[in-house]
Amino acid sequence: MRVNGKPEQYISQYIGFRKSEIKHAQLLVNGKPVYIKGVNRHEHDPYNGHVVDEASMLRDIQLMKENNINSVRTSHYPNDPRWYELCDIYGMYVVDEANIESHGMGYKPDQCLANQPEWEKAFIDRTERMFERDKNHPCVIIWSLGNETGEGCNFAATYKWVHANDRSQRPVHSEDGIKGPYTDIFCPMYKKIDVLINHSLYLPTKPLILCEYAHAMGNSVGNLKDYWDLIYKYDQLQGGFIWDWVDQGFAAKTDDDRKYWTYGGDYGENGTPSDGNFCINGVVYPDRSVKPQTEEMGKVYQNIKFLDFDKQTSTVKIRNDFSFTNLDKYDFYYIIRDHGKEVYRGKIENIHAAPGKTVTTGFLNGIPKEKQTTGDVRIEFYAAIKTAEPFLPAGTVIAREQTYVHTFYKKEATAQQPATSKEEGNLVAFSGPDFKATFDKQSGLLTSYLYKKHEYILNGQGPRPFFWRAPTDNDYGANLPVRLKAWKEASYQEPKAESFQVTPGSNATTIKVTYRFPQTDARWDITYKIYASGVIKVDNRFVAEGDQAPMIPRVGLRMQLPESFTDLTYYGRGPKENYRDRRTSQFIGEYAIPVKDMYEPYVRPQENNHRTDIYWYALTDKTQRGLLLIADRTFELNASNYPLESMDSGDTIDNGAPRTEKTHHRHLTDPLPEKMVDLFIDYRMMGVGGDDSWGATAHEPYLIRPGKENAIEYGFSLVPFDKKEDYKYLIRQY
Fold it and tell me: Which of 257, 267, 342, 490 has the most CB atoms around it within 10 Å of its CB?
């Protein structure tokens, strides 16, 4: 600023040089195609609302770097100027979005503001102010004309204005422009995979970058790997921005000083319009603590892939998905584990791969050629930072993968002696030297399981068929609590055995119990083989034959154990929760977790802390006495002190309804632990989905369909053990 011709004030700004353009239906930065591994970011602080300080911004960038995010869309307004400076400094692509949205006005040409000429000046004014303020930031590679405003003459004028004034001719992005002349990028939101395929196959003239996808509301972000497998397949698919970065909740405490997060439905007088928890859809919590889906995102977004491991040649292929970085910048190593235990660690030397190239490693030592034990042998590959970078110390792992060398197997169980049986009125008791198992002939339930005078079943709640889960936010969005209610009714119907047959045998006494579920024309057959040792082999067959039966939330058995079983150890995917459609970040291994910690504190209570691909698990008390469950192949599990019912919000969560005295908005502190272990031994639970939270379900491979052709069989063994027994030895026996 000059006063009387003399400079009085100076304002400095970092600048940089780069070129952003569209060529051959691809987004190029400095002449190279780039993948947009992005998130939408609202400016949010759990204490200060939309006022965010630099420390919060730096924390965001740190977490983004740690989880392989390279792009941010400033949804839906220009951000604090300091944000752009930090993105310049630390390297983050930015889609800079004008503060233009009129979602509530509708999208019809005679309604939307984008098509009302009297609004043209306002449209251009907001875009011009963003442009003039931010035009010198090299981080800004795309201009966005706004969000959810419809299509029309005002965006046409704004598009022309930007291109007339931006000398660097950065691409312009308009979601409302679809594939028309006033957007350089086809940037839809929440499109299904078939839309991406169709775009790629029909001679596209624009790249497709999803401005919003993977709606991260509650327990979500399933199917993400499916999207990225497709994105890597077609050149004109270049990624997208997950909705969104952070849960927009505010910090609060209960009367007894327990912390929780409030959200929309907690504010205003009765009658205040509210979308409930619809702003709780971040991949991180309000305080930036990470969620299981944060890790899944980071795994899917990683820029180095380990492919086609060949145990015969002891090699693996490594693909470089960076646009500008050679892989000689990183250290590579591998770990071989036998049933979770590290048995070998080796370096992978001389990896030089230019961007976009794939190389094959040299011979990897230490890989067992033959299966020498019954253990599960897996190999894990890692890429780590060689020289420290901002937020990423040397040694930080930026890419990883796991695959098998030899899979878990067991020899046939050795012959055993059968348990003896004795009828006691409506009960049948089976016993051996150290145990007694009691069944109720009317309900078919195992109501007591005594081993060395210790009871393993709480209040008679032995295994019973169960098909329900506490609905997730995505479940509510698709109205599944109502659409699938027949399976809830089936789960809670009074257990009544249609048949109960006891058959003595030479090495086991067998019980076969049949249950019918008229709501869905379903049948469940359970066969128990009971041995004198106290081991019970459980085989299940389930089929839902009804033509009108809906898809099934879960197929499994539920039982309850005493609270004395405080610790869970398992061999399967972990250590965090995982589901069929969100599990690639959770490696198969042995993990130990206190049962009390098997609760993921989603802002609104819902299904959580499931585990998949389980080979075995053990629940133990403080003396190391416990119960071992061994899958015939694999199964899934959930074990918690929080009963399912405490996380089930019923048929609706009242999103979109005005606030009332009875509005059903719950918080993470509402479920309370009980003096029990709620245990689910599942064949499978359906995926969590995430394409959107207002109708989409999980993708077809992750659903459970009824029908004769989809009959399910799975089995496992219940093995009680004393504090002096090595239960890991028992794993190989049953």
Answer: 490
